[in-house]
Amino acid sequence: MKTLILLTVILLIQPSMMIFDFNTTSDIINWNIVDDVVMGGRSNGNFNINSAGYGEFHGKVSLENNGGFSMVQYKFNTKQVETFSKICLHIRGDRKHYQFRVKNNISDRHSYIVSFETTGDWQTINIPFSDLYPAYRGNTLDMKNYPGKTLDMIAFLIGNKKAEAFKLEIDSIVLK
C-alpha cells in the first residue's frame, strides 16, 4: 500500500507526456527520413520497427558531393508543453554522437538542438528544455533557447563530419 501511495505522489508531482512509445505494432507513418541528398549528398538513412519492437534509425553517412548527414523526423499536431521542463529519451546507440532536435512551430526554418553521445548500452538521456539551442544549417542563431511552449516536431540527426555506418534504437520519448 505504501508503494502505491508513493507512486501516486510521484506521478502527481512529476507529470509526463508520452511523445512516442515504440512497440511491434507502432505506426511510424509520420516518421520520415531527410538525408543530405536534398543538397546533392549520398547519405542513406532508414527507419523501421525492428523485431524487438524498437524504432531503429540506421544507415550510412557519406561525405560524397558535400554530404554528411542523415536525419529521421517525426511531425505531429501541435502539443502544448509549458507544464514540462525536459525531454527523456530511452535509447541504445552505437557509441556515436547524435543530435536531438525539436521545433516549436513546423513552419520555422530553425530547430532547437542538443548533442549527445551514446554508450552502446540502453540509456536514458534527459534533455532540459533550456539546453536546446537554436540553429539553422549548422549555424547557431542569436536567439533564446527553446521556449518550451509548443512542440510540433522532433528529430534525431547524425552528422559527425565523417563517413560512417550508424544505428540508433529508440524505445521511448517522454516529456517530464
Describe this structure in words.
- The protein contains one helix and 13 strands.
- It has a seven-stranded antiparallel beta sheet with strand order 2-5-12-7-8-10-11, with no helix packed on it. Strands 1, 3, 4, 6, 9 and 13 form a six-stranded antiparallel beta sheet that branches.
- The protein is mainly β and 176 residues long.
- Helix content is 7%, strand content 51%.
- The mean pLDDT is 93.
- The protein has one helix at 2-13, and strands spanning 17-21, 31-35, 44-49, 55-61, 70-80, 86-92, 97-103, 111-117, 122-128, 133-136, 139-140, 150-158, 164-175.
The pLDDT mean sits at: 93
Strand content: over 45%
Shape: globular
- What structural category characterises the helix and strand content? mainly beta
Total number of β-strand segments? 13
Element order: H for helix, E for strand: HEEEEEEEEEEEEE
In the sheet with the most strands, the strands line up as 2-5-12-7-8-10-11
Continuous helix count = 1
Radius of gyration: 17 Å
**Terminal-residue CA separation:** 25 Å
Low-confidence stretches: none
Major sheet summary line: 7 strands, antiparallel
Can you give the helix content as a percent range?
Answer: under 10%
